[in-house]
Design goal:
79% helix; mainly alpha; 16 helices; 2 domains; single chain; MetI-like fold
């Protein structure tokens, strides 16, 4: 297990370094001058050049990249041109709502998807199974912004059960104000969970060792929870880890729909004003979250199934 852990962590480090290179180059290749975007295009050229020297934008690209890497490892993410404050300070107040929304959506997708998938696998080709498959197909094809608007219209404006915008602190306020946006993100992911877990469970339930467990008189509930689900959940874990990127990208739209003061609205403003430092930091944080989620899923799979870590040797 230790060798597998070292190899996966080393691979994650390499991917993170490649991510730093990609975010740096892509941002610097985008057309436009951030200094002109902040102080205006009518500013004197001498003033623009002075600010570029002050921000280090006139240095060679390789020198800028070295400063970017060294400062990032030191925890200094730079200065936001548009906000006039350190990038870390700008992100600090926004990362909480976005992280809570992503975790909330992930939890809802599991709580909704797992029971439906298990029931559908235990009653294949029945009425409920067909309804689940039809509903998941419809839900997966629905755009996030349209689903969010629909949920806000029904549960917020018509029934007045939940707020349609804003963010409130505390456990109770968080669960209430983020329920609709979390459902907007979680329901499409739940459809993926249902389809993946259902297919895996059907395959596992047809295995010989499941037949042997039935012949010993074990109840179907124990067979599913103690034997079948542990093997069938592997593919679902992989799908969930891959779709962390979908959740992070989805927050950019959902936060705009429900007016949540998170990383999405901050990124939109940074892109509009060509705030390179801020966009780099947000992109790096989002990419790092995806890499770490994939690493966590790999380690969890190795802990649940020895064949994973033995196959990686």
């Amino acid at each position: 297990m230790l060798i597998y852990l070292i190899r996966r962590v080393a691979l994650a480090v390499v991917v993170l370094f490649g991510l730093m290179i990609a975010t740096f180059l892509i941002i610097h290749l985008v057309p436009g001058d951030p200094v002109r975007a902040v102080i205006g295009g009518n500013a004197p050229p001498a003033e623009i050049n002075r600010i570029r020297d002050q921000l280090g934008l006139n240095q060679p690209l390789l020198t800028q990249f070295w400063h970017y890497v060294s400062h990032t490892f030191q925890g200094h993410l730079g200065q936001s041109y548009s906000l006039g404050i350190p990038v870390g300070q700008a992100i600090d107040g926004r990362i909480g709502p976005s992280a809570a929304l992503i975790c909330y959506a992930l939890l809802l997708s599991v709580l909704i998807g797992f029971p439906l998938a298990i029931y559908a696998a235990l009653h294949p080709n029945g009425l409920f199974d067909n309804i689940i498959r039809l509903g998941t197909t419809f839900m997966f094809a629905m755009p996030a912004f349209w689903l969010g608007l629909l949920l806000a219209l029904v549960f917020g404006l018509e029934l007045h059960w939940l707020p349609t915008s804003g963010y409130s602190g505390g456990v109770g306020g968080l669960l209430r104000t983020l329920l609709l946006p979390a459902l907007t993100l979680g329901l499409p992911l739940a459809t993926v969970v249902v389809r993946t877990l259902r297919s895996s469970l059907l395959e596992v339930l047809g295995s010989d060792y499941i037949d042997a467990a039935r012949s010993r008189g074990l109840s179907m509930r124990r067979i599913v929870t103690r034997h079948a689900l542990r093997n069938a959940v592997m593919n679902t874990l992989t799908v969930l880890s891959v779709n962390i990127g979908f959740l992070i990208g989805g927050t950019l739209v959902v936060e705009q729909v429900f007016q949540i003061p998170g990383m999405g609205s901050l990124l939109f403003g940074a892109v509009e004003k060509r705030d390179y430092q801020l966009v780099q930091a947000i992109s790096l944080l989002a990419g790092s979250a995806v890499v770490l989620a994939s690493l966590a899923a790999d380690l969890l799979q190795a802990a649940l199934d020895p064949r994973v870590r033995l196959g990686g040797r």
